[in-house]
Amino acid sequence: DAGVIQSPRHEVTEMGQEVTLRCKPISGHDYLFWYRQTMMRGLELLIYFNNNVPIDDSGMPEDRFSAKMPNASFSTLKIQPSEPRDSAVYFCASSPYRVSTDTQYFGPGTRLTVL
Amino acid sequence: KQEVTQIPAALSVPEGENLVLNCSFTDSAIYNLQWFRQDPGKGLTSLLLIQSSQREQTSGRLNASLDKSSGRSTLYIAASQPGDSATYLCAVSPAGTALIFGKGTTLSVSS
What we know:
The complex is a heterodimer of chains A (about 120) and B (about 110). With about 120 residues, chain A is mainly beta. In chain A, about 0% of the residues lie in helices and about 55% in strands. Chain A contains no helices and 11 strands. In chain A, the strands form 2 sheets. In chain A, strands 2, 4, 5, 6, 9, 10 and 11 form a 7-stranded mixed sheet that branches. Chain A is globular and about 40 Å long. Chain B is globular and about 40 Å long. In chain B, the strands form 2 sheets. In chain B, strands 2, 4, 5, 9, 10 and 11 form a 6-stranded mixed sheet that branches. The interface of A and B includes residues 48, 100 and 103 of A.
């Protein structure tokens, strides 16, 4: 398997623009997670899905952020409008979580810079 | 609210040295604890997972321990190599799914 795929790898945009980050999880994984990593706050969970259904979105910072998972092989994280403080690396991860020893598999991340 | 702390934030050692990375968490009600490695510009890779009923896990030169009652875990790296240079992240799982991460320890091993 190719692993978790994220696109784009780098995104530079101007304040106020809409940004869409994309993720393709590993086939067969029922759980999908979106994280954000900054120097100040470290790695934080934004939202996660189980079988395409959002389970916990308490980490989504505000209404400007939204996430969808229209099918088992694709998810998006959208920021509208973007602000400079949204600059961070956004990671997508997936997991089968079929047994207690299953872990999460991370994508390479999208580095977002909002000017 | 669960908080995970990693000390030190950065560590530099010469090649061949044995070293210990520390992780502490505030709520002992965890499902498991994991150690990840992150290389610059890359995603995270799982190194070791310790279930709440276990005390330690080993993989090659790595050994991770868990003391739930005191809210502590350590990652022991034996005979460190320059290839071990990376950021090491500790994460706890309150319910077996979502993870709460520490900010990591950045390790530099010089040859």
